[in-house]
Amino acid sequence: MKINRTLYRIFLLASFLALNGLILFGISSAWTYLNTGADRTSMLHLHEDISATYLPKVQWEIAMNEGRPMEEQTLGEIERDYLSAWQVRNAAYANNVPYGIADYYTDSMRTELFKITDLNLKNKITLQTTTIEHHPKLEFYSTDGKLVVLTDKNVLAYEEVYQNENLITKRKLLSDYKVMLLLEDGFWRVRQLVETALPEETLEVASQIQNLDDYHFKGINYYPQDTPWDMFGSQFNDSIIEHDFKLMAKMGVNSLRIFIPYESFGKEYVDQKKIEKVKRTLDIAEKTGLDIMPTLFDFYGNYSIHDWTMTNRHVEQVVEALKDHNAIIAWDVKNEPDLDFESRGKERVLAWLEQTVDRIRKIDTKHAITIGWSSPEAAVNLTDKLDLVSFHYYRGAPEFESAFNILKSKVTDKPLLLQEYGYSSYDGIWNGFSGSDEKEKEYMGTIQKVVEKENLSHMIWTLYDFRNIPTSVVGRLPWRKVRQRHFGLLDDKGEKKPVYDIFFNENP
Amino acid sequence: MHILHICIILSLLFSGCSKETEVKKASSVNFKLLTSEENFTAGVPFSLKFSASEESSPVLVFRNAVGTTILDTSYSDGAVQFDVPKNFYEKSGICYWSLVSDAEEKIKGTLNIHVNNKNGTFLESYLGPRSLTAGPEDYAMFVMLATDFYDNPLNDSTSITSKIQFQESQSEEILSSKNLIAWTRVRSPEKSGRMLISAACNETDSKEFTTIIYAANPVDFTISYERNHEYADGNQVIKFKTDIIRDTYGNIASEGTLVYFIITDDKGAKLKAQGTTLNGKAEARLLHPEHQASWSVEAFVTGAARSKPIKVAFIASVTDYEVTFLDGNRTVSVGPLKSFMNQLVPDGMPISLSIKDVNGDVLDVLRTSSMQGEGKFELSPDFFPTGSYELKIKTAGITKTKSVELK
């Protein structure tokens, strides 16, 4: 009886406290909610920096124009507004809503655009368009500074035409335009846009691409042990890198694959400090006799046509800065882009890859270009665009030979590279203590037999067992993270794991 | 029986959920372009005809400089026909077409739509700047854009005439268009006035533009003055004026040109008066000084021109006056002040009295102005206790000093 009463008391007290707690929680949530949203400073309508979202390559041809000499300031304004004219036009045709057209086209010109958006709206036609290159040349600038004529030659554009949201056709376009712009209400507006004679076909430059047929990659996908997936961040330490590089060179490795992430390298405005770190890494590689294959666009996943001009600016700066370094052996455009086929659309991803390959080729005519496909099956994509066909393999070891042979039969004219493969020796609660160093050795041994039989170029994932895996790599789930930590040839103390002997048994 | 039903339902469910598999039909339809013409004229409707090897429904993707669209088929006597929409056949330039059937580009080509010169010409012209200064250094630019009826710019090397009228002279110049436009510089004449400019192309005339030619910068000029008398009475007004200000070419300076008159007196103090020109002449007025003075006057059009300095002398109008002390020297009466004809000076002549104590320290300066030729100061015992003071009276440039004992 007494126990019962005590229980009641406890229950009553507890429920009272819980109720109070709930009420307080409710009030505080309401309070927090009411305090979120608009910042107080937003009342002031302060100027916001709008970062450019359309940055095709623009190369002005500098020559004396007729009329008044051009001022640098005005030329910048003309370029800005002219590109905006293309951007709003592309956006208008993407959904047939002519938003912003009135700002960048004069009355008579905008009616012509409206006629097409109306027609396309009626017929449910949409266009995904972007211009990739502009080569404007100023022809005329009037004395009162209110009228310019320019020719824009070899405007390289890409266009996808959709009807009822089905892709009808996609193509690259090359055109020459004559453009007349008027300064109205502070905007340089397009008054006339005339396509002139068909552009001359540019002759294909004789290929100077380094032939990798006889180059045998015996490589490693490299991250420093303490900073995996953040090699060039604030903890960049060239003495660690030098140590690792010397170690690998001693092991008999001839090439490394490193990663250049898109966002943390500054997207379209590449962080030169990080580029300097990459250069230092390349210097060390050259000194130790290692060749480097940088993988670009790591962690990038947009691929949208509207993003092309931005990724192009990124790749241009990175490739331009590094292409002349002796340590570069090839460019890897993107790591495992085929994993984005489903979420982003295969066509879209392939179109992006194709044009990015073209972009790199335009800047660097020398080095081979590859894409790190996630499987041998995916590696048949875009083979004619690439100089080296790379694929990754993490599935069962016994099936490797057949999967590889299928690829080999399909790709006959390009060298192949097994760019990533490895096995996690993780042994713990998340896989029911089923892994072991011996299993790793066995797995790699099976694959290595095929690799050696075929004399296949290969790059192992990876040098070290890592201590920490960033969440952005495989997500938060602990069983994924721990697995990812144990792919190394050396364990987390830098000691050789059993698997090491498969590769480097000749070097004690 | 039940199991069979369940099986059927399950299989239906599964098939309903399964993704529609895309079957790519390898189409074998061949198309051939029947339209042989590749050059068309803007504004004239046309269509493209194709023959197809078998029944199919292709679409034609059609593009010009402005945009892209898709044309649907219409059939005519067995051929596949695409009618080019109005806004596309009205725009001159290069057009690209490609025939797509079953998601495959079958055949593609280009065609050229030429400018239509038949339906008349439109002429758009721009003139700027719209005002000039006289003389050959300054010019305006006249830009002409000739288009056909459908707003397509005429081909390069179209001749466009620009016409200029200025006073008695009329001139024409034949220009040839290049890069969409034709342009010319309109040099300013040496005379000021209104210049009319227009253009003509293929029997179409533009509207009339006016540019106003203003006089160029003025050149140095001379000034003079006018006054009622030469006495420094502090009451009359002296008028400074310029002669007609002109530019190098003899044009009268623009109305409203601001002229500053800077006056330096014999003590180095500066006075300033200003006026704007009317018919080239500017005037400015100043009050005569109250005491004898000698002025040096110079006029400026800021940044452009100046005059030669002139001298103006004023002689004293009041030669002497009396000071009387009343009420134990506490009331100081000045005057009567008499002018050059012994008339009382006009009201308002300033009079000042400065009071010093025995140590020579100035205690106060009292000011008043004359009324009926006289001025009066009251030295209150509240401020100035009994004692000896030195009083200094000053008016019309004449100073009188007196030591007094205030009671």
From TrEMBL, chain A:
Family: Belongs to the glycosyl hydrolase 5 (cellulase A) family.
Keyword presence, tRNA processing: no
Glycoside hydrolase family domain mapped to chain residues: 236-464
InterPro entries xrefs: GH, GH2_Domain-Containing, Glyco_hydro_5, Glyco_hydro_5_CS
Superkingdom of origin organism: Bacteria
Annotated keywords: Glycosidase, Hydrolase
Organism: Zobellia barbeyronii
The protein's name: Cellulase family glycosylhydrolase
Automatic annotation (TrEMBL), chain B:
Name of the featured protein: Uncharacterized protein
Source organism of this protein record: Zobellia barbeyronii
Source organism phylogeny: Bacteria, Pseudomonadati, Bacteroidota, Flavobacteriia, Flavobacteriales
